[in-house]
Write a structure and sequence with these properties.
Structural class: alpha+beta
Strand order of the largest sheet: 4-3-2-1-5
Helix content: 25-40%
CATH class: Alpha Beta
Mean pLDDT: 73
Largest sheet: 5 strands, antiparallel
Low-confidence stretches: 1-27, 149-157
Radius of gyration: 15 Å
CATH architecture: Roll
Order of helices and strands: HHHHHEEEEE
Number of strands: 5
Distance between the termini: 24 Å
Oligomer: single chain
Number of domains: 1
Number of helices: 5
CATH topology: Nuclear Transport Factor 2, Chain: A
Strand content: 25-35%
């Protein structure tokens, strides 16, 4: 796979992927909890696996959502995603520090011998978690904590 295309997909879509075990039905959970964060990450990336990019746009942090157009964004993501076939994904670490979470994921791409590891960020705002479509490591990682281990993976049905 061409590294430039992969990086473009990561930067454009913020392809951070993880899975979780949903809390039991009817259970009230803290919206800032790791369970809620994992549920939001799973929802976002399940939409990618379903190629429902326009709906995934709603899970992007407000600052970036306001600066982009849903239709144009979805069309751009679709063009890039056609070249990259995601097979499965797994979360390898999560660190929540205040209103920001750092998520390390392994992305398994069709035709690639090994998984690509990426670091992604989610922002807590408006009482929920939203994806931050930039690589904060490029401007300085504001999280100063060791990522907790997360043992989860998802294989598309």
């Amino acid at each position: 796979m061409k590294r430039i295309e992969f990086v473009a997909l990561i930067l454009l879509t913020g392809l951070s992927i993880a899975s979780c075990v949903s809390p039991s039905a009817g259970a009230k959970t803290d919206p800032k909890s790791m369970d809620r964060l994992l549920a939001r990450i799973k929802t976002y990336h399940d939409l990618f696996l379903e190629k429902n990019y326009a709906s995934a746009f709603d899970l992007i942090a407000g600052k970036w959502r306001l600066n982009d157009d849903r239709v144009k964004w979805a069309a751009s993501v679709e063009r890039i995603a056609e070249k990259i076939k995601l097979v499965n994904y797994s979360a390898t670490g999560i660190c929540i520090c205040g209103d920001l979470a750092r998520v390390v994921v392994a992305l398994h791409i069709q035709g690639e011998a090994s998984a690509a590891r990426e670091t992604e960020y989610w922002q807590f705002e408006n009482n929920d978690w939203f994806f931050v479509p930039v690589q904060l490591r490029d401007i300085g990682d504001p999280c100063d904590c060791k990522a907790s281990s997360v043992q989860s993976s998802t294989e598309p049905d």
